[in-house]
């Protein structure tokens, strides 16, 4: 009897090298028009793609503006730009980057605040999205740099208040390191996608991100208040709305994150408790603090306004949904739609597994649900292709999914056991 061959074991990767300082040191922050002209000229004279990143003050400020812009290009090195000190006037930078490919990680997070500065790429490579398309389980910048390049980045200031001035030296090191290896990572991810035959898919995805429209404002953003599910009646919902709107106005005027003005938990507690006096209000958690005591009359005014609303001006407890209901209710409401969704999900899972793709990158879950809930009258492949295209699916996604979705849309619900 032959001895069993031992399973092949992938050799251990070498320990990643901790990167604590940029190779060329941390450049001075560009804060004057003269320094910006010099930096822009250097970037324009460089070659190849440009690594781009931004730092915001999410959780500290109301706005999502960029408080630091980091760039790096072969032949130019790293540039750190303070757009606030420059009054947002970055025209030299816009000119220097006009015909370059930009490399970003999780570009959808940075492009809006760059667009506020009138900085928009003509060509984009997103290393995070590349990692997803490559089928990698973890796609943070640090993880990909370690996997593809063998370096480990110091990560510790991503959630810092980048509106602070002056910026601490160790924060600037962190910011410079975020673009230090981004071009090298782009090179490796490009090669990996090419090896997997997914490069054309990736370029389509990058273009979709680059050209994405800003999300439309929510009709009732106050309904996103954390913990609002505990509010059970329309009058209390009106109190949440009133407190939320007052808080939002204060936050916008002072450019402070709303949660730092008043936490969501306090909004919900006040709506439920409906305090009518300052002593009742300050007896609630959070409202007893010095800052909230100073605003007690403001919060009480918001609650009084909600209390005084006529019945026909109260918010509805269950607003109409934009789109199909939750899938767990489909079997009761529309068994045929439930059968279509079940068949479609199984088909999508098989395709995703075959091509080593995350399901959400193969086709947006919301698009799949809408297609199954309200399919085209003609469920042929051409009609399905048209519906997918109309809903924003990319050509590579349509090519992989339209045929099997056409079949899934013709699925019939299983007959009940009593039939």
From TrEMBL:
Domain HRDC: 233-313
One of the record's GO molecular function terms: nucleotide binding
Keyword RNA-binding: no
E.C. number(s) listed in UniProt: 3.1.13.5
Gene Ontology process terms (BP): nucleobase-containing compound metabolic process
Coiled-coil regions listed in the entry: none
Location of region: Disordered: 1-24, 311-334
Domain of life from the UniProt record: Bacteria
Keyword Hydrolase among record annotations: yes
Sorted UniProt keywords: Hydrolase
Matching Gene3D superfamilies: HRDC domain, Ribonuclease H-like superfamily/Ribonuclease H
Compositionally biased residues, Pro residues: 317-327
Official protein name in the record: Ribonuclease D
The organism of origin for this protein: Saccharopolyspora gloriosae
Taxon lineage: Bacteria, Bacillati, Actinomycetota, Actinomycetes, Pseudonocardiales
